[in-house]
Automatic annotation (TrEMBL):
<dbReference type="InterPro" id="IPR039422">
    <property type="entry name" value="MarR/SlyA-like"/>
</dbReference>
<dbReference type="Pfam" id="PF01047">
    <property type="entry name" value="MarR"/>
</dbReference>
<protein>
    <submittedName>
        <fullName>MarR family transcriptional regulator</fullName>
    </submittedName>
</protein>
<feature type="domain" description="HTH marR-type">
    <location>
        <begin position="1"/>
        <end position="137"/>
    </location>
</feature>
<dbReference type="InterPro" id="IPR036388">
    <property type="entry name" value="WH-like_DNA-bd_sf"/>
</dbReference>
<dbReference type="InterPro" id="IPR000835">
    <property type="entry name" value="HTH_MarR-typ"/>
</dbReference>
<dbReference type="InterPro" id="IPR036390">
    <property type="entry name" value="WH_DNA-bd_sf"/>
</dbReference>
């Protein structure tokens, strides 16, 4: 099938790429799971964030986030502390062990990116990264569910 025959939209294409990345991103290669890599990368970029902000940033359910953090905390990769400004909230921070695990996983992830994005030159990869960030930022600003999307 030629490239001209491909009519799938960006969401379908992103989903297919995500599946390729997920399949290649084994814990054996990364040293941690892909979900843990995502959480640790978010924590690196948003130091000492709240559990709620982490769940929102990762686009996961709050209960799932707590379970994920339990595993990360047990592994010594993160720590949770009560927020001194609001004792009802927990602040989440990456530990030194978490930073080391993240660096190892991101280094291993580079080979997967090289394989999955082999058809793009460095400028195109940078453009793709920028567009994906822009799309995520735009989606994150949406506070209501669109009418055409059904709720579970």
């Amino acid at each position: 099938m030629s490239d001209a025959a491909i009519t799938s939209g960006p969401i379908v294409l992103l989903t297919r790429l995500a599946r390729l990345v997920h399949r290649a991103s084994t814990p054996e290669l990364l040293g941690i799971s892909l979900k843990d890599l995502g959480a640790l990368a978010f924590l690196r970029d948003h130091a000492r964030t709240t559990q709620q902000a982490l769940a929102e940033g990762l686009c996961v359910d709050a209960n799932y986030c707590v379970l994920m953090l339990n595993d990360l905390e047990t592994a010594g990769l993160i720590e949770r502390r009560r927020d001194p400004a609001d004792r009802r909230r927990h602040l989440v921070a990456m530990t030194e062990a978490g930073r080391i695990a993240l660096e190892h996983a991101e280094h291993a992830q580079e080979s997967i990116e090289d394989e999955v994005l082999a058809g793009l030159d460095p400028a195109e990869r940078d453009a793709l990264t920028g567009l994906l960030r822009q799309a995520l930022d735009g989606a994150g600003r949406r506070t209501t569910t669109p009418e055409h999307v059904s709720r579970p």
